[in-house]
Amino acid sequence: MAKPPPISNRIRELREQHGPMSQSALAEAIGVTRQTVIAIELGKYSPSLESAFRIARVFDLGVEDVFGWEA
Amino acid sequence: MSPAATFRNIPFREKTAWAMASILIGGAAFYLNMVISASRALGQTAPPFVGFVIAYVVVIVIASVVLMSALAATSPREANAPADEREKIIGDKAGNWSGYVMVVPALGALWHYAVNMDGNMLFHLVFLSLMLGQIAEYVFQIFLYRRGG
Question: What ipTM was estimated for this complex?
Answer without folding.
Answer: 0.87
